[in-house]
Amino acid sequence: MKIFKSTFVVLSFLLSNIFISCNKDAFLDVNTDPNRVTEENITPYLILPQVQHAVGVRQFSNLDFLVSWLGVTAPSGDFVPDQSLITYNIDFSFSNNYWANNYNVLFDLQKVKEKGFASKDSGIAYVAQIMQVHLFQNLVDVFGNIPYTQAFNSNLYPNPKYDDAKSIYDSLNKNLDIAVAYLSKSSGPSKAFIAADYIMKGVTDPKKIYPLYVKYANTLKLRLLIRQSEIPGFNPTDDISKIVAKGGVLQSGESISVNVGYSQGKNQQSPFYAFFGYDENNNDANNLRANLYFDTVMKNNFDAREVRYFKPDASGNIVTCRLGGKPNSPDDPTTNPTGNNSSKLGAGLLSSPSQNQWIMTPVESLFLLAEATARGWFTGDPKLAYENALKESYTWLKVDNAESEANSHLVDPIANYDNPRDVFKSKAHFIAYQKYFSLAPIDPIEAWSDLRRLDMIPDKGYISINQNKISNKLPVRLYYPQSEYNSNSESVLAQGNINVFESKLFWNK
Predict the structure, then answer these.
(1) 310 phi and psi, to 5 degrees?
(2) Residue whose C-alpha is closest to residue 228's, from 177, 167, 162, 178
(3) Run of H or E residues at 146
(4) Where does the pLDDT of residue 436 fall: very low under 50, low under 70, confident under 90, or very high at 90 and above?
(5) What is the residue-wise DSSP string for 471-504?
(6) In the predicted model, what is the mean pLDDT of the chain?
(7) Strands 256-258 and 357-360, how do they pair?
(8) Quick check: 402 and 395 in contact, CB under 8 A?
(9) pLDDT for position 11
């Protein structure tokens, strides 16, 4: 599995070397040299740009396997594919990089918090806290119980305990409340924060910065709530009231994204583009291509987003591969075509090496809002909320004539909110199915979580066709990484035996 490694700016290298996971207190002894970087002379404003970039990277890096599992991509026939990818026979090393890289970024965010509070800039501290919630929820949604309360003090807790996943969710929810309470009443960000903030660089009015971060926090809160929606007796009323009272969630055009100056140069491209697209010489970055399943469903339903998700060939066709298909062999009908003869991801996702890197899109926010409205959590018309979400997907992908194409799609049986279909148990299931086609390529953890929570995809066409696969369903979680069994064995062994197909998370009822 390919690992994206950022070498974008010297600061990224510098801070990555300083903030090394599992040995975060090992700073250099610089004695009296004032020009060398130390714990003491690093400010939160120095850390923030690289950590915002890193949060953007974490939305997809080490998750390429999941994009394929969800039926969006598949390896081309140029190489023998990773057997764990196509058979689901994963081991304890499968998640090493995902675990370590997330905790590295979480530690950096913790440093921004601590140094922000120490420098009397609570705004930058609480923005870091919001981003921590985002990454911690992702970790819980992949692994379940994880180190949380003892995660960042290696001197006191060299072997951090694993906290209960539900208690972590509750804590994350409270942390969002605390951050929103401060940002809502603050007069605005400091000049130093504004200068260092590469998420809000396009916001010309400083008074609008905190309100947008509040909406980001509210959207994360709604995501926490939606994830628990199938738990018997779950009641989100109080938290929904807080969301409404504090300005609601991200709306159309309100994207949380980062751009620290991405360009065509070597190691300077926008992260998603560099990973799924092309290098500085316009060579393919990897061999992932359009998946037959995802493309066929879109094509059969006349979904105009198809040619924004996948790049047509010279004849205007999308040439696909199948997950588990055999490497290229002219005499084998189950073969996958080579990379040069199959379709990469398209311009809706790979527009430019300088494109913004999304962290939280309005597409996700509006689909969360649509499902919550259909569940009766918000007042309003659930049909309208759903249609707004689907239209936002068309707009976000920059589909030609986006509004008219979306309106045409919304009257098709597959996308018509009023069309009764026995394959969907409820309107929530229907909305989540449409959300899958709008979000799986850009936020695979969200789409995977919906699939585990609701099992809303009527067929299993996304499943690998490899004859050696060990299951006809996707894993519901990953194993804890081998690195934890090596360095924190007592804590991880206390979690018991894990079955990645049966050991469901607390919200996955």
Answers:
(1) -130, 150
(2) 167
(3) strand 146-147
(4) very high
(5) -SS--SS-PPPHHHHHHSHHHHHTT----TTT--
(6) 91
(7) antiparallel
(8) yes
(9) 44
> Computed over its alpha carbons, how large is the radius of gyration of the chain?
22
Q: What is the pLDDT of residue 326?
A: 82
Instruction: Match 């969907």 to its residue by tokens.
Output: 424
Kindly state the tokens that stand for 97: 């990089």
Supply the pLDDT for residue 80: 85
Residue 487 clears pLDDT 50, i.e. is over it:
yes
Neighbours of 313 (CB within 10 A): 11
Please tell me which residue, 27 or 71, carries the higher pLDDT value.
71
Residues 6+ apart with CB under 8 A from 472: 460, 463
Contact 160, 150 (CB under 8 A): yes
CB neighbours (10 Å) of residue 173?
18
Bridge partner list, 74: 289
Per-residue pLDDT of 150-185, as tens digits, reads: 999 989 999 999 999 999 999 999 999 999 999 999
Amino acid residing at 389: A
Q: What is the length of the chain?
A: 509
Helix (H) or strand (E) holding 183: helix 165-185
Residue with tokens 């909320």: 385
Q: What is the pLDDT of residue 68?
A: 97
For residue 196, give both structure tokens.
Answer: 């260092």
Residues whose CB is less than 8 angstroms from the CB of residue 23 and which lie 6 or more positions away in sequence, other chains included: 154
Give me the residue label for tokens 């369903």: 473
- Looking up tokens 């990454």, which residue turns up? 135
Residues whose CB is less than 8 angstroms from the CB of residue 300 and which lie 6 or more positions away in sequence, other chains included = none
Contacts 24+ apart (CB under 8 A), 206-212: 210/123, 210/183, 210/184, 210/186, 211/183, 211/247, 212/250, 212/254, 212/256
What angle (nearest 5°) sits at the alpha carbon of residue 121, between those of residues 115 and 124?
75
Q: How many CB atoms lie within 10 A of CB 131?
A: 31
How many helices and strands, by DSSP H and E, does the chain display? 20, 6
478 contacts 338 by C-beta, under 8 angstroms: no
Which amino acid, one-letter code, is at 2? K
CB 169 within 8 A of CB 137: yes
How confident is the model over 42-57, as pLDDT tens digits? Answer: 899 999 999 999 999 9
Is the distance from CB of 478 to CB of 94 less than 8 angstroms?
Answer: yes
Show the domains of the chain with their CATH numbers. Answer: 10-30+39-265+353-493 (1.25.40.390)
At 353-394, the pLDDT tens digits run 999 999 999 999 999 999 999 999 999 999 999 999 999 999
